[in-house]
Design brief:
The protein has helices at residues 5-9, 23-40, 47-68, 79-90, 94-109, 120-144, 146-153; strands spanning 16-18, 71-73. The longest helix is centred in the C-terminal third of the chain and has 25 residues, at 120-144. The chain has 155 residues and is mostly helical.
Amino acid sequence: MLKSFRELAAQPDAPLRPLAVNARDAVQWLAQSQIKLQDARQPLISNGTRMDVSWDAVLLACMSVACAEGWRVTSDRGHHVVVLEGACHALALGDVRFDELDILRDWRNRKYRAGFTVEDSELEEALEWVIAFLSDVARWYESEHRELLRRGLAP
């Protein structure tokens, strides 16, 4: 069962800190996630780099969700999986969707191992997951934080 940001923050050494909701930051994280998705779709870039930026798109969207919920993610150990779990809980995505995205996180971490390669089929699957997740985030913002989006987009 996925934990909320609040539950995750209560754990010892959690990489989450309470933060006043900042509409501009939340929207900027969200915009950056879309840019990373565009980068991941570029066929002239290596599959490894495309996989890396696919995960970045997810991570930045998760950071946006955390920001909208009043949390700041630190760079402390475990921050990627913690923010992913909190975001999946906030979006009510469930364990299966979390597991898919966690596989993407693991693929991204393979770059730290010798002989790292990303097959075309792995990349295609990852992009499907990222696109679906970013759509879920957009729907969540529309239903739960429409006013926050409006404020964050205001000049």
